[in-house]
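Residues determine shape. Next comes a sample protein:
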Amino acid sequence: MYRGKPVRLILENGMVFQGKSFGAEKATSGEVVFNTAMVGYPESLTDPSYEGQILTLTYPIIGNYGVPANSKTNGISDFFESDRIHVRGLIVQDYSHEYSHWNAVKSLGDWMKEENIPGIYGIDTRMLTKILREKGSMLGKIVYDDAEEVDYYDPAGENLVAKVSCKEVIEYNYGTKKVVLVDCGVKLSIIRELIKLKVDLIRVPWDYDFNQIHYDGLLISNGPGNPDYCEITVDHIREAMKLDKPIFGICLGNHLLSKAAGAKIYKMKYGHRSLNQPVRKLGTNICYITSQNHGYVVDQDFLGEEWEPYFINMNDGTNEGIRHKTKLFSSVQFHPEAAAGPTDTEFFFHDFVEML
């Protein structure tokens, strides 16, 4: 019989949810967001784009297939999206203490204990998600005894990209064509996809002046938080545009390329976090089901005349990418590497490499 320690989730609007703990027994705070995916919690928890957030998973049973080993190929994790868990806490309805999977080596709770990340289960995640949809994402904290155990933490108050970006240049030599990858919190699946396509990948920190080195193409990665903290990156992207070399952005990369193109960014009410977001390529009836994780969006009305919207979200009509009308510059708000799926838009990596 498993008996989790009583624990509470307290939202900044004063609402309280009673639950039981798993993972690390510690108080925490962050922005409470939700993801509607049925699978992929190892990938989500290690996604740097979740830095500073407490993640609610709407699928009711979590933990049933455990966690894989952190095996690596050429120094890159085979299954995780970074070298650590980035969420500040996890909220689920029904935590499965028992797990079964051919690739699992430990339980989700044990992994979270190792990483010092708290979890809470027994929460009515359907009610919580409805509140977040109606009121918008809000700050929250997980506490045990005293509501004052920890202060509310607002991730919007700091540069999260600087926290999760690599600190030095890292090179992956697998080909002749050189691609600069601006690491704003890159998912390792993006690196794995590029390595498969045999490129010489140069991974640089978010504020690195990559224009001082020779390269054949530029890729701007995903990442967490407010894009307005990355003005130095935007300046470097504007300089790169003068070279007329292929540029491709993913998620936060879409925000930064769009800012370089004159657009503005605003925060969404509760963001897109799921594996089933439908997007349509503008000017066509082609639609893709995509993986997404973002809380900000591009206001495409401010794009320069040489640019145009590329994709649109079929649920709410928000921007899902931009492209230059004559040059090889484009970006998408969704994740073509799509860990944990779907893989419908993986072809974007092939198209990018073919341009080099």
About this structure: The chain has a mean pLDDT of 96. The longest strand covers residues 264-281. The longest helix spans residues 125-135.
